[in-house]
Amino acid sequence: MLCTMKAIQVHRAGGPEVLQLSDLPTPSPGPGQVLIRVKAAGLNFADILYVAGEYLVRTRYPTVPGMEFAGIIEALGEEVAGLQVGQRVAALGGSGAFAEYAVVHARSVLPVLPSMSAAEAAAFPVSYFTAYFALQTQARAQPGEWVLIQAAAGALGTASIQIAKALGLRVVALASSEEKLALCRSLGADVTLLNTQDNLVDAVKNATEGHGVDILMEVVGGAGFAQSLKMLAYRGRLLVIGSASRELAQIYPVGLMKGNQSVMGVWLTPFLSDPALMQAATAFLMPLLASGKVKPVVGERFKLEEAARAFDFVLSRKNTGKVILEP
Ligand code: NDP
């Protein structure tokens, strides 16, 4: 292991132009921590917001972004049990993954199945845990219910289609191109609709035989939020998971009363420090992965030094599945 490494460093808030390939000291693991050689890192929309200083946690610059990755354990800090140097693992949480090496707490380390590539393992944690917590923990999805998934061909979207089908839900998938909708159908979406079409509320109502959707995974926000509320069924639950439009949305709370409807937030980060919920999620997800019933959709792959192009790619809505950065 060299004492310096390549990393994407950010010194100020901004877009892809603030990402700098830098030589930084290779970190060493403290007590309870693990040093991992990064083989592949997942690029999430949250990384774009984090770099821009628009995420739910404050960004402290300079920083190395990247919150999920897969790789090989290089060194263990003191007091780490149950992990071994040379082991293939994935990791979730915090920052620092857009680098050749990253240090994480041992409790942030996840197992990797032998059948999974590094890119698949890196594409898994954020999207699948979020999909599970959104549908199962927050919305308490019941088999046979309708769920509408926005940005359904993206990283969270493709994971959500697979988890929704595993939970026995009926899926309406929205995306911005026919190619993206074809991917959604291949993953099991029952109904696919272009999010650009006119009268989307009517189209969703027709597709669900007038019922509306029981659960709606809202990730765009802004002006479309009011439209999402109109798609909800009686006792429908609208999950606020993201705001890719980066615009404010308005809500009229009294309007929820007539249909006994709910609007609820979903954020992965607080769930990560709840051991019981993490255990339940892992127990649900790992057998699905092992059986091949769910399989992370790996999208475009970029070299670490192409991080700015990768950010541009997601911002211009070209990606399907998870964009991967490889050191
Ligand atoms: P995606 O891979 O889904 O990429 C973003 C997608 O959002 C685009 O492909 C596009 O799909 C859609 N989109 C709609 N409006 C815009 C816009 N103005 N600019 C760019 N994209 C837009 O990203 P992720 O899976 O990483 O994240 C999807 C959403 O889920 C984000 O809002 C993210 O913040 C949120 N999220 C939240 C989590 C949580 O814990 N709450 C965890 C993970 C993700 P299309 O072209 O088909 O419309």
Strand content: 25-35%
Task: Characterize the biggest β-sheet.
Answer: 7 strands, mixed
Mean pLDDT rating: 97
Category from helices, strands and their pairing: alpha/beta
Whole-angstrom Rg: 20 Å
Number of domains: 2
Brief summary of the model shown:
The protein is α/β, with parallel strands linked by helices. It contains 10 helices and 15 strands. α3 (125-138) packs across α9 and α6 (200-207) runs parallel beside α7.
Task: Describe the structure in your own words.
The chain is α/β, with parallel strands linked by helices and about 325 residues long. Helix content is about 30%, strand content about 30%. It is built from ten helices and 15 strands. It has helices at about 45-50, 120-125, 125-140, 155-165, 180-185, 200-205, 225-230, 270, 275-290, 305-315; strands at about 5-10, 20-25, 35-45, 70-75, 90, 100-105, 110, 145-150, 170-175, 190-195, 215-220, 230-240, 260-265, 300-305, 320-325. Bound molecules: NADPH dihydro-nicotinamide-adenine-dinucleotide phosphate. NADPH dihydro-nicotinamide-adenine-dinucleotide phosphate (NDP) binds next to helix 1, helix 3, helix 4 and helix 10.
Topology of this structure?
Layout: E1 4-10, E2 19-25, E3 33-43, H1 45-51, E4 68-76, E5 88-92, E6 101-105, E7 109-111, H2 118-123, H3 125-138, E8 146-149, H4 155-166, E9 170-175, H5 178-186, E10 191-194, H6 200-207, E11 213-218, H7 224-231, E12 232-240, E13 262-265, H8 268-272, H9 275-291, E14 298-303, H10 307-315, E15 322-326
Parallel strand pairs: 8-9, 8-11, 9-10, 11-12, 12-13, 14-15
Antiparallel strand pairs: 1-2, 3-4, 3-6, 3-15, 4-5, 5-7
The protein binds NADPH dihydro-nicotinamide-adenine-dinucleotide phosphate.
The site of NADPH dihydro-nicotinamide-adenine-dinucleotide phosphate (NDP) has 30 residues, from helix 1, helix 3, helix 4 and helix 10.
